[in-house]
């Protein structure tokens, strides 16, 4: 057929085809396909793929692709990565999407990392760790054995755990290896704190002592309390040591000389916790950089200004019930911005700038749950049976880990949290090392540690 005749025939056929119903059009196409040979079918296949399978993600500008991808959840995006190499490349390079997904999981974000493929890998690592937490597979346990009497005092710092015992000794352990680095003869220890050179102990004999690790020698003895010393803290820069006692007082000492600088009164119960910390917020009563002392008993938390001056007066007293019907747990969190303490009613968080209660967190069956650690994203809690991780953004418990029958103590110093930085957000490096330690009835120390990602 001549080209001119063919074009006229094609116009007539087209006009007639357009006048048909959809069903008639389909029947016409089916008939034409049945009459087609291999060349026509290959031509049809190639053109249909272009018409019907257009890759919009490939055709769109990258900025528009990223905008569309933001509306998809991470699991859908991971599925989309399997479509083609091009899709995988585009989706993996969508930094903002993966950073947001990581933040939603409670992951810390380092904005200085510019590698576009980095954050998808971080998300995959994060989702694995969060699944392990949900499935109760993120931790493992071990024990430290070496004391011959009850272990009453624990303190953790930089991978090292100090234990003080009724066997008149204190030991320093490398948590990663389980090896005892130092063991020195002391008095009965109710509280311990250490650094590279020295160990400070509060004792049931009503005194505080300072010891040298390398020689085991007692370098200072602080006498003056008339009751057991349940908590100690110190600051080398200020040359100050503070101690809380069963005699209802807090004493401030010169660390280097052992001289008592002041006795702070006002508590009407055992002082079970003292914390010496630098203030990070400004208020009418203190400025950033000021040193603050917190002391806590069964019902109250008292706030004191501490500096090089000898005398100080209580700035404020915090409590959760005016009639003392609700008691506080022995543990206390203070980071210079917020004060957090638990009670039978829940977790109380105070703003340190205003002393106002910011919130009360009440998880299910909170009456027996105590505070171990409190961060920007997570809190670490425990009761008689489990160790818990709470997402503070939702106030939901996201993980738990079974605990053995540990030694109970109303004063509560015989258990503690380990590494704390992950409470401000996991980052793939800080989920290592010690999570929790507690003393056992057989005088061993039970450890809960992060398990490697695998």
Automatic annotation (TrEMBL):
InterPro entries: F-box-like_dom_sf, F-box_dom, FBXW2, WD40/YVTN_repeat-like_dom_sf, WD40_PAC1, WD40_repeat_CS, WD40_repeat_dom_sf, WD40_rpt. Residues 54-101 form the F-box domain. This is F-box/WD repeat-containing protein 2. Directly interacts with SKP1 and CUL1. It comes from Panurus biarmicus. The keyword Transmembrane helix does not apply. Gene3D superfamilies: 1.20.1280.50, YVTN repeat-like/Quinoprotein amine dehydrogenase (2.130.10.10). The keyword Repeat applies. Signal peptide: none annotated. SUPFAM superfamilies: F-box domain, WD40 repeat-like. Keywords: Acetylation, Repeat, Ubl conjugation pathway, WD repeat. Substrate-recognition component of the SCF (SKP1-CUL1-F-box protein)-type E3 ubiquitin ligase complex. Pfam families: F-box-like (PF12937), WD40 (PF00400). WD repeats lie at residues 144-183, 222-263.
